[in-house]
Amino acid sequence: MKYDIIYNNKSSVKSPYALRIVLPTKPDNEEEIKKWLIDTFGKFGYIYKVIDSGFFYAEIYLKHEGDATAFELKWGGTLQEPTEE
After folding, report:
1. Half-sphere exposure in the Cβ direction for 24 (13 Å, CA)
2. Does residue 56 fall inside a structural domain?
3. Total structural domains in the chain?
4. Is 85 part of any domain?
5. Rounded to an integer, what distance in angstroms lies between the CA atom of residue 57 and that of residue 53?
6. Which domain holds residue 22?
7. 84 in any annotated domain
8. Which of 27, 31, 41, 52 could form a disulfide with 79 if both were Cys (CB 3.0 to 4.6 A apart)?
9. What pLDDT does residue 83 have?
10. Helix or strand or coil: residue 35?
């Protein structure tokens, strides 16, 4: 499943979270993703918010723009279980 990364703080309204990742549908490995988020960013380093609006399933807010790199390195361009090569 592809996801979108949207960078915040591009306007005059500043957020403590530099970016959000929009999940279009519920990932099969959602619990593993949540565990990785807490292990990587700590309890207060992210927000995982399920909205299930019909347009998308959830949003993940991260505090630093570089956090997107860590997320992409772990999950690639999709939210599938990384394969061992």
Report:
1. 6
2. yes
3. 1
4. no
5. 6
6. 4-70
7. no
8. 27
9. 52
10. helix
Q: Which two tokens stand for residue 85?
A: 């090569």
- Among all chains, which residue has been given the structure tokens 């988020």? 37
3 state DSSP class of 49: strand
CB 50 within 8 A of CB 57: yes
Give yes or no for residue 46 having a pLDDT over 70.
yes
How many residues are there in the chain? 85
Find the farthest-apart pair of alpha carbons in the chain and give their distance in angstroms, rounded: 44
Q: Are 69 and 5 in contact (CB under 8 A)?
A: no
pLDDT in tens, 52-79: 888 899 999 999 988 989 998 898 777 7
Considering the chain, what percentage of its residues have pLDDT values greater than 90?
A: 48
The amino acid at 41: F
pLDDT, one tens digit per residue, over 16-28 is 889 999 999 998 8
Say if CB 3 and CB 27 are below 8 A apart. Answer: no
CA distance 82 to 85: 9
Whether residue 38 lies inside any domain: the answer is: yes
